[in-house]
Amino acid sequence: MRLKEKLAYLSRHGGALLAANFYNFETLSGILTAAARKEAPVILQLSEASIDYLGLKVAVSMARAGLEQFGVQGWLHLDHGSCLERVKQCLDAGFDSVMIDASERPLRENIEMTSAVVRLASAYDANVEAELGYVAKLGQAQVTGSFTQPDEAARFVQETGVDALAIAIGSAHGFYKEPPRLQLDLLSRIHAATPAALVLHGSSGIPADQLQQAIALGICKVNLATETKNIFMCTLRNILTQSDEIDLRKVFPQATASVVRLIEEKIDLVTGALQPS
User: pTM for the complete prediction?
Assistant: First the structure.
């Protein structure tokens, strides 16, 4: 099943997919091990920085081989694409889904850039995600007055034809300095205003009850990145301070195991009893 079809189904009938970023073989295998154990579908995400680090061809080959080896239903998604050129590179490389993030530009420019990506992706039959509103990125301050508004979301989706929309309802990328408070009433009104699949960025650190309520009210794609990086590196750091072991094949699996446990918990939280179709 194509990702756009899966997300459209979830948007209509409820439920969500976990969309997890990977950064190397260890984090990829941790995500896929968890998904295989839970028999859950998963979206594998690559940021531009991860693509630059791994190399596009290597990253795609790793993801595809991993999905096949672990027997997991999954899709490959470009997270926060910055330009049409990068989007096209990923589509040519076989990505199932791409995100164009022009959310920091004026609304008209965001609409124009997103529309261009939608036209481009139609030839590949790929899912397209965009962002509307202000979801603070790493190092940026949260701005509570820049939430996505239902009327703008309806206009944006109608004019662009985008499949999925990341919305600003109180989440942020990275860890939170204060407990987040998602604007659940606003989410409900956005969901009623547009048929697009709604996406929550910045799920790391959001309380479980708020996340489950958000899914019940229309979120059908939940992005996870910061917690995965953090638990892998914290585990690895702890191991290395207590050992002189130089064989990475003995050290890395312990850090990977911590990723597996994290992703299993997130899958239980996000997808519940959802099974591949």
Answer: 0.92
